C-alpha cells in the first residue's frame, strides 16, 4: 500500500540530501524540531500544510514542485500514468477548478 506521508518524506529527504544539507540545518531554517522533521522524512508523521510550507521554504523549493514529485511517485507505485492534460473522456465530467477560489 502506498502512503502519501512515506512518499512525501522520501521526496523531502532526497531534496535535502541533494543539497548536501543536514536534518539539523533544514530543521533550524524551517523552525521545526529536528526530531519531528526526522519523523516526517521517515514517513512516521503527517505534515501539516503549515509545516510543509516551512520545510519546502527552507529547502528553497516551491510547494507545487514537491507535491508534483510526490504525485508522480505515487502514480508509479500504483502503475498508472498521469497525463499532463485532462483526457477528453474526462474533461466533460469534472467541474473546472481554474478560478474556483
UniProtKB/TrEMBL annotation:
It comes from Brachybacterium phenoliresistens. This is XRE family transcriptional regulator. Transmembrane segments: none annotated. It comes from the Bacteria. Residues 12-66 form the HTH cro/C1-type domain. One of its GO terms (molecular function) is DNA binding. CDD domains: HTH_XRE.
